Automatic annotation (TrEMBL):
Transmembrane segments: none annotated. Residues 34-79 form the HTH cro/C1-type domain. It holds the Pfam family HTH_31. InterPro entries: Cro/C1-type_HTH, Lambda_DNA-bd_dom_sf. GO terms for molecular function: DNA binding. The lineage of its organism: Bacteria, Bacillati, Actinomycetota, Actinomycetes, Pseudonocardiales. Gene3D superfamilies: lambda repressor-like DNA-binding domains (1.10.260.40). This is Helix-turn-helix protein.
Amino acid sequence: MERTAGWVARVPDSLWSRREVVAALRARDIASLLVLLRRYAGYSQNDLAGVTGIAQGRISEYMRRRRLPTLDTIERIADGVDMPPECRGLLGLAPERRCRGTCQDRVAAAHP
């Protein structure tokens, strides 16, 4: 599918209440979650890479279960797709990420 400049996939609110999405969140099954985002929200691997800042090749590895994501990666995915707080909770994350970006850089700058 060809994307126009500035195109951003929107996750339909109904996606988060789908039985298979809830099951993936509860199981912390990121591979299934990424596949479901592709299927129901239209995200390609490149789209997911764009909204999360994670390389497309790495997204592919997560989707094929070739690599396990770190907690930071899971948070980046949740942030990138604007996951609702209750879904973040099912995934085992805080309702929202308090410190976006590189927290260590901010701490280092504040305390040289």
